[in-house]
């Protein structure tokens, strides 16, 4: 069986370099392209060297078209603007698009859904196997503990730019599904000053930033006289690259559609 040919976007960033190192270990996958944004100072450099390995002969380029024409999958941890553009191109090329990008607005989500009519798109606010299992457990707990208050606590490194994190929102969505409610209508993302008593049905979020924390997430179910906490600690970024590459391999040969990591893990069965 031939190896799955993968393009990595944001190839000189932290996740990009981690993905390139993971792909170099083999396991039925091979790197066939490395993308960076136009004007980036690392364009033209060897992606293996940037990832801290021996040169691999794959240099960074800003033009996705020739790369996607010869690829079977593209793995993408970039920005909503870049990801929606790549989704359109993945649809044209009929390849797998794995999206770990977060922060899409409604228009962005609609573009991804449209692209998924022709491409296999696997999108998740977190590519970790453990986090997606945590989300499945949170959904079940929210359903079983219908009168418990739900609070989601997350902490990331000091340079993270979005809050709450995509993972926290993923967990919030899971809890909302368990309660059969809309997260948009029940999420409480800020508390300041005299807020009054907590409303029944609220799903609260608390955000911490500092240091070099890769990712800490807890879903707290607080009832009368007891509290249950489901949590996950990310200790290395390789868990995200491993999950994303697992998703790429899973998606190859699937029918076009918009999938999530719960599909990859078989948790929707």
What does this structure look like?
By secondary structure, the chain is of the alpha/beta class. 36% of the residues lie in helices and 24% in strands. It contains ten helices and twelve strands. The protein has helices at residues 14-24, 47-50, 64-69, 80-93, 106-115, 129-144, 166-179, 183-186, 238-251, 261-264; strands spanning 4-8, 29-35, 60-61, 73-76, 96-99, 120-123, 149-156, 187-188, 203-209, 215-223, 226-234, 257-259. Strands 3-2-1-4-5-6-12 form a seven-stranded parallel sheet, with helices on both faces. It has a five-stranded mixed sheet with strand order 8-9-7-10-11. Helix 1 links the parallel strand 1 and strand 2. Helix 1 (14-24) packs across helix 9 (238-251), helix 4 runs parallel beside helix 5 and helix 6 runs parallel beside helix 7. It is globular, with a radius of gyration of 19 Å. The model has no long low-confidence stretch (mean pLDDT 94).
């Amino acid at each position: 069986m031939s190896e799955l040919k993968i393009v990595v976007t944001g190839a000189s960033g932290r996740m990009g370099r981690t993905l390139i190192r993971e792909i170099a270990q083999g396991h039925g996958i091979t790197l066939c392209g490395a993308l960076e944004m136009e004007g980036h100072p690392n364009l033209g450099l060897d992606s293996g060297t940037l990832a801290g390995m021996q040169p691999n002969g794959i240099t960074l380029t800003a033009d996705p078209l020739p790369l996607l024409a010869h690829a079977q999958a593209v793995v993408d941890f970039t920005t909503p603007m870049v990801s929606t553009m790549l989704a359109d191109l993945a649809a044209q090329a009929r390849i797998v698009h794995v999206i770990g990008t977060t922060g899409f607005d409604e228009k962005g989500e609609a573009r991804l859904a449209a692209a998924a009519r022709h491409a296999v798109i696997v999108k998740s606010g977190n590519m970790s196997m453990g986090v997606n299992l945590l989300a499945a457990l949170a959904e079940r707990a929210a359903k079983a503990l219908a009168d418990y208050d739900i609070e989601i606590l997350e902490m990331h490194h000091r340079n993270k730019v979005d809050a709450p994190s995509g993972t926290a929102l993923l967990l919030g969505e899971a809890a909302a599904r368990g309660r059969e409610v809309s997260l948009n209508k029940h999420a409480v993302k800020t508390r300041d000053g005299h807020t009054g008593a907590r409303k029944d049905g609220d799903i609260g979020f608390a955000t911490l930033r500092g240091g070099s924390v890769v990712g800490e997430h807890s879903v707290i179910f607080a009832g009368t006289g007891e509290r249950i906490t489901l949590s996950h600690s990310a200790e290395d970024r390789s868990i995200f690259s491993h999950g994303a590459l697992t998703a790429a391999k899973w998606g190859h040969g699937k029918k076009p559609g918009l999938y999530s990591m719960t599909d990859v893990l078989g948790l929707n069965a």
